[in-house]
Amino acid sequence: MFWKIVGGLIVAWVAFMVLGAVIGFLFKAVLWIAIIAGAVFLGTAAYGAISGKKNTKQVGR
C-alpha cells in the first residue's frame, strides 16, 4: 500500500512537471508574439505619422 501511494505521488509530480513545462513554454511564446506585434504596431504607427499626407485640405461648410 505504501508503494502505491509513493508511486501515485511520483506520477502526479511528473504530470505537474510536464504540465508546468508546457504552460511555461506557451506563456513565453505568447509573450514574445505580443512583444513582436507591439513593436510592429509602433513601427507602423511611426511610419504612418512621419510619411503621412502633407496635403491637409479642410472640409468646406
Which secondary structure elements does this structure contain, and how are they paired or packed?
Layout: H1 2-50
Keywords: Membrane, Transmembrane, Transmembrane helix
Transmembrane segments: 30-50
Query: Which quaternary structure do these chains form?
Result: single chain
Report the portion of residues in β strands: under 5%
Unreliable residue stretches: none
Radius of gyration, Cα only, in angstroms?
27 Å
Tally of strands: 0
> Main beta sheet, described?
none
Number of helices: 1
Given the helix and strand composition, which structural class is it? mainly alpha
What form results from the Cα inertia axes? rod-shaped
Overall average residue pLDDT: 90
H-E order: H
Please estimate the helix content: over 70%
N-to-C terminal Cα separation, in Å? 89 Å
Keywords: Membrane, Transmembrane, Transmembrane helix
Transmembrane segments: 30-50
Provide structural commentary.
It is a single chain. By secondary structure, the chain is mostly helical. The chain has a domain of 27 residues. Helices cover 80% and strands 0% of the residues. It has one helix and no strands. The protein is rod-shaped and about 90 Å long. The termini are far apart.
